[in-house]
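Methods: example folding runs. The two proteins below were folded one after another, and each record is reproduced exactly as written to the output file, sequence line first and structure-token line second.
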Amino acid sequence: MRSQQSLEEIAEIHLLLEDIKKEYETGIRTVLRKNNPTMFANPHTIPKLQKIQINRGLGLAAQNTNILKKSIEEFTTITGQKPIITKSKKAIAGFKIRENMELGLTVTLRGEKMYTFLTKLIFFTFAQIRDFRGLSVRSFDKAGNYTLGLKEQLIFPEIDYEDVDQTQGFSITLVVSSSSPKTRSRTIDKVLNGMILFKFLRFPLNDSGYYEKYSSFSEVNQVWDRKKHLRRKRWSQE
């Protein structure tokens, strides 16, 4: 017989699979505010996913029309949206790059397409990665956004193995938006907001490794402050 906790987890996953946007608006936001009335007294401070940016750098290979066309088709198939071709802003002779030269592709997903892609990424795509052990919590940036890299496009169910000439990866950035007050505008608070949101969305964050020896978040915060102090001390001596 399944435990009550496992049944609740299964129910949560089914709700997210059915409509992840609706579950966030009606379920997750309410739970966050109820469990943390002091932290999220203002509803605008509750973290939310603003957009997802997907990028692929092709370099000089983008000058090959067939390679560029194939990448555009893959992006359109995976995201449901046609990508924008990124171009160089200035010439760099050492890298044989001219000004306004095509170098890669980018897509920005919002709204329904963003949530559709997120559902596919969490519940289907990560499961296709060999020896997948979760994603590092150390990939958050100072703004609380999360960036991950995928080595190949074959892990997406829409891509047919026989149609792929060469495996190419891309980077995915999940941009989190939250209007934090000045008292909670530090980097550690922004990262914490992102971690809380992703945990509720069943994002496979791996909390072990570097952080498993600490029993509470306050201990991790103290370690960060100590390292910051030592870094400043070293700089002042130099």
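Second run, written to the same file directly after the first:
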Amino acid sequence: MLTTALTLFRKRRRVLKNNERLAHATKDGKPPPEDVQDQGFTRPSVLLLTPFRAHALAWIRALTAHTPVPAYQVENLARFLKEFDLPEGAVDKLASAAPGTYPADHVEMFRGNVDDNFRVGVKVTRKSVRLFAEFYGCDLIVASPLGLRMSIEKEKSADFLSSIEILVVDQMDALTMQNWDHVQFVLGHMNKMPKESHDADFSRIKPWYLDGHAAYLRQSILLSPYETPEMRRLYNAELKNVAGKGRTERRWAPVPVPAGLERSVRFVRFEAGGPEDELTFSIFWSQMLPAILKSAVQSANTAVFVPSSFDFIRVQNHFRKNVGVSFAVLSEYSSNQDISRARQSFFAGTSAFLLISERFHFFRRYKIRGIRNLVFYGLPDHAQFYTELLSFPFLDEGVDAADVTCQVLYSRYDWMRLERVAGTEGALELVQGS
């Protein structure tokens, strides 16, 4: 954030200096200087996308922490804290919970205000930072993809994104658990020729904006603890900087599993024709599920984990229409009452199967009792979820590792998830069929 703040201050100083040069030239009757191209079509030059209000609050605090004191003012700060922090008197259940009640990464992600519909303009001047500035009069826009999309669709214009010079997308792992289409929508509207002039002084617009080359000179920073195919597609398709682009890579170690379960986990490989191939669903319901239903052990106390929301709906519909067994559902749309009822029926054995979506586990992080058999329709994006799900059978007393089974369905197109779970070397062996 310090780099972003310095960029905004430097740009503002340059504009003010050129304003003085133009004023002096006019006063002295001289022709205006020609090297004053210091602006875009519109004023906003930095866009920060982040998933929750609490994260926006942290970014703004980081920005204002670097402003000169005591003369510098932060305008509308009280209103900002009221809207982006927790309401007065509210208790953050995650932050106040006993240590170990929730995983540390879950507490870090969801403490504070987790509303995902927001947008705020920030104007930087010599003596103040003004929050809630109008978009066409601000320097920095902090927003969620949903909030920004709603603004664009309401105004039927994305002209305020035409001159963005720095894009920061934070917590991309959380954004994939929201609606990724919102991220694609926003990036698809950036650095386009504006529909209106918005009182722009064309003599001061940088030439690459006039030539329609802004997207090739924008600095884009994408932040995530891991990579997904959606992120890679965004990286390949939307980032076109002429100076090049780079991404960090790492070698992954296998995630830990409960002692004794190493030999109980069976990875089931199939050959898919492409990343969008629907063979996963076909293999699951024509081969894997019938074998499970024939087994006296696996036809009960079985949890099926489905990472994709689209696949989750298909699997749920298939169970409802074609599989004659009782099942319960835990999805991101389940109410508290639905969740309580599903957990209880599964633990009591009333429901033989439990369908769990990754988004449910991401947002809720409940511990599920009664599991003896785990089926991963696909591996989770968050490798830690794999370890957590494998540990759930041992929440019940007297469970031995020999009583637990686990099957993982995968193809070579699941490489990114597979690498984070099995480790780089282990994933290579699995993909190559060794």
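Comment on the second run: The CA atoms of residues 44 and 295 lie 62 Å apart.
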